[in-house]
Amino acid sequence: MKTVFRGMKVGLCAVVLLGLGACSQGPKTAESQVANETTVASSQQEMPQWTATYTNLASRTSVEDVQTLLLTYLDKDSVDAFFKLVNEYNEIVASAGLQGDFAPFSKTEYDVEKISNLWTEKHSDFVGTNCRINSYVLLKNQIDIPQSEKDDALLFIDNDAIENGRLFDTEDKEAFNRLFSRVKTESTTDVKVHAKKMENFLSQFKFDENARMLSVVLHDNLDGEALFIGHVGVLVPTNDGFVFVEKLSFEEPYQAIKFETKEDCYQYLLTKYADYTGEGLAKPFIMDNNKWAQ
């Protein structure tokens, strides 16, 4: 299922609210773009060109495995805060069917309606957390975020979640909004042009070389030409490859995916979000920290 507005299929790391269903069609507002996230897991995908395994972090073994990997590169407070969110989510939606130990991975589909009902029964006024929130929780002490201007127009649901869930203090919330700000760009379908804009924007932040922020960047022209991080996760090296940790959406589960190479992870993201574009818009592209992953 996909949501379409102004010719662009969107969804990614937001949430279905205010009647903006993931399977609805037709023109939407700029807010609809970031508000319709649950299309992520059900996006049509090509046959995978990678060998990978995944887990929803729903077993003790998988949690201990990924926790140990993350603690190699991230501070304990951040990792503990992340797994607190993981455990809270998984305890509520466990009956919707989550993968425990690592298993072969190609693509995943989840019962979003069941998950949503389970979550709402426990948290009627708190939508939960999404990819950006969880990535910030993991990386906030690894990224140097300067005092810079922000454009948080597409982060209104993120900010509601942060406030309702009491997730961040004022300082962290402001840093979060600066890191995931909307970025002005040009009216072109040339990815090179947009990638340069994102490189310029992200160059003001100092990233970690081991725990890397991988971002799916989308082009939007509904309210001026702009770029924004529609999906994001954290990539860390292992003894024989890499693990990519992500929260698919506010409603959809956590995933930790083991890839043989980081290029395989790039391909996974490019394949998954390949059709989140439209007439007059550039194709989605991947940023690895502050560099375009060509």
What brief labels describe this structure?
about 20% strand, disordered N terminus, alpha+beta, 11 strands, two-stranded antiparallel sheet, DUF4300, signal, about 290 residues, DUF4300 family protein, nine-stranded antiparallel sheet
Can you tell me about this structure?
The model is unreliable at 1-11 and 14-45 (pLDDT under 50). α3 runs antiparallel to α5 (131-139). It contains nine helices and eleven strands. β7 and β8 form a beta hairpin. The chain has one domain. The protein is 34% helix and 19% strand. The chain is α+β, with helices and mostly antiparallel strands. The radius of gyration is 17 Å and the shape is globular. The strands form two sheets. Strands 3, 4, 5, 6, 7, 8, 9, 10 and 11 form a nine-stranded antiparallel beta sheet that branches. Strands 1-2 form a two-stranded antiparallel sheet.
